[in-house]
Amino acid sequence: MQPDINPHNSLVSVIVPIYNRSKYLKEAIASALNQTYKNIEIIVTDDCSSENPQAIVASFQDPRIRFRRNAKNLGVAQNIIAAVNEGRGKYIASLNDDDIWNEDFLEKLVPHLDANPELVLAFSDHYIIDSNGNIDLKATEQCSRLWKRNKLKQGIYQPFYKIGLVYQAIPSAVAAVIRKDAIDWKNFPPQAGPFWDLYLTYLACQTGGGAYYYPQRLSKYRVHPLAETMIIGSQDAQAKIRGAKASIFCFRQFMEDEHLQQYRDYFRKKWLHARTTLGIGLLKTEQVLKARSLLLHTFSQQKFNLRTLIALILSYIPQSVTRKLLLSARS
Predict the structure, then answer these.
(1) H or E stretch at 67
(2) Residue 162 to residues 6, 234, 246, 316: CA-CA distances in angstroms?
(3) 267 pLDDT higher than 70
């Protein structure tokens, strides 16, 4: 049930980050402009792309859209934070340049934040779509199960450490609206990198406020070769290193948080897994001694882990052999 309040009072700053991936930008912006909730501003923030998307933004001729461009590449986290700091809205909502919102996305979520000042965010489930925009129902159901949103009931979760950081059920970059003044955006760590959304969920958890879950699928997450999650999971060694470093940073922070000690073993396991991933990435870029040192320490921190052991053994055999083995296997 929707709160009985006027849903059009609070300004929402819609942040659309982009970097050399303008193919779907027009569709993303259109889905924001077509919201039934009209009190929005849209900030398209370009991270110094080689392909300047300004012409696409200007083609809408809508005064609610602003375009900003970084003078140098800042990375995904800082690109988004720079735009957030320029936003005038009471609430912040991220819309990836390749994703789509249902027209009632904001209308279904914002009123809950307006009705309850103790809520720090409101979020929903989402669809998975392919590069052509077709809904993949099988992948959508798998996604909902993977992040356990299929087990969540509609309503308020407070505190929400478990669903936010263990289940990772809150899609902060895809299907969430966040109260801007609840987060210290100016001190957002750049080390969070491609996992800025998970770290944002962590900061939201730290406020002690609540999260409202709306179980309907209100947005569409596009899976395609240029999606950041696909790049990090691919054979791109630099992307693997970038993702692993961000993951190590996040899970180390979670491990050390006194409010999260009941989940420490889980976060430690994720931290160690990310360290092994970093070691594999370093091997792929032939930084063998650095990889070996990291993997030795990581292996010593575990009872036994076959993945870490195999990576460690690879650091002792000839690089030509290692290169062939790493290229033939998805690690």
Answers:
(1) strand 65-69
(2) 32, 28, 20, 40
(3) yes
